[in-house]
Amino acid sequence: MATLNGKPVSADDLLPLALTNLGHFTSMRVDADGSIRGLALHMERLVKDCKAVWGADLDTGRIREYVRQGLDGQSAPCVVRVTVYDPKVEMGHPANADEPHVMVSVRGAGAMPPEPLRAMSVPYERDLPEVKHVGLFGALHARRAAQFAGFDDALFVGRDGHVSEGGTWNVGFVDESGTVVWPQAAVLPGVTMALLQQHAGHRVATVTVEQAKGMTAAFATNTSIGVRAITAIDDTELPDEHPVLSQLRETYLSIPGETL
C-alpha cells in the first residue's frame, strides 16, 4: 500500500496528483540486503527538485523514515518510489500549492540485467529535463508510438538532431576505441549514469542519430535496470554483448549500496 507522509494514502489524496500531474519523484532499487546504490544522490535529487518545483526545502531524514516505513514487510529486491506533491494543488491556482507531501510506493524489481531493448528514434524534448518530474505524457506517448512500430522504447532526438536520452533512461555508447560516450544534451542527470561517470574512460560529446547507429555498442541506464544493452536503433542492429558493457555492469554491481 502506498503511504502519504507515513499514513495510508486515500483516493482523495491521490486525485490532485492524477488530475494536475504536478510533482516530482525519484525511484530507487533496493537490493536483497536492503541497501540502495546512490542513495545520497537520490536524496540530493529530491532536495534539488523540491526547490525547483515547489520552492520548498525537504527534510531528507523524514524522507528516509518514510521509505523505511514503506519498505517494512516488503520483500527485496524491489523498487521504491518517492513522489513529492501537494494534495491541495488546483489546476487554476498552482502557485497556491506550497506544502509538498511525500508519497512512498513499492513495486517488485525485475532481473538485472534485463533483456536488451530495441529503440526507435523519436523527435522529442522533455519539459524541464533536469527535473525528474511526474509529467510523463510526452515520454510515454513516444514509447507507445515506438512499441506500435515494433520497438521496445523511444530514443529522444532534439530539434538540433542530437540524441539526448530515452523514455525513462539515460543512454550511453561505446565508440571504436572502447570509450564510453554520453550525449551532450539537456537530459535528466540519472543516478546510475552519475555513478558510472565517476570512473575513468568516459567522455561527453554531441551524438547525432547517424553517429549513434555507427557506435560499437549502445546501452540504457537507470536505477531499475542498471546497464541494459540496446540492440537496435531504428533499422540498425547493434550487439547485445560487448566487453565494455560487461565491464560497466560489473562496475555498477561492485558499487556498495548505502543503508537507510
Topology:
Layout: E1 3-4, E2 7-8, H1 11-20, E3 24-30, H2 39-54, H3 60-71, E4 78-85, E5 101-108, E6 117-123, H4 137-148, E7 153-157, E8 163-166, E9 170-174, E10 180-183, H5 191-197, E11 202-205, H6 209-213, E12 217-222, E13 226-233, E14 236-237, H7 243-254
Parallel strand pairs: 6-7, 6-13, 10-11
Antiparallel strand pairs: 1-2, 1-5, 3-4, 4-5, 7-8, 9-10, 9-12, 12-13, 13-14
What does this protein structure show overall?
The chain is of the alpha+beta class. It is built from 7 helices and 14 strands. It has helices spanning 11-20, 39-54, 60-71, 137-148, 191-197, 209-213, 243-254, and strands spanning 3-4, 7-8, 24-30, 78-85, 101-108, 117-123, 153-157, 163-166, 170-174, 180-183, 202-205, 217-222, 226-233, 236-237. The strands form 2 sheets. Strands 6, 7, 8, 9, 10, 11, 12, 13 and 14 form a 9-stranded mixed sheet that branches. It has a 5-stranded antiparallel sheet with strand order 2-1-5-4-3, covered by helices on one side. Strand 9 (170-174) and strand 10 form a beta hairpin. The protein is globular and about 50 Å long.
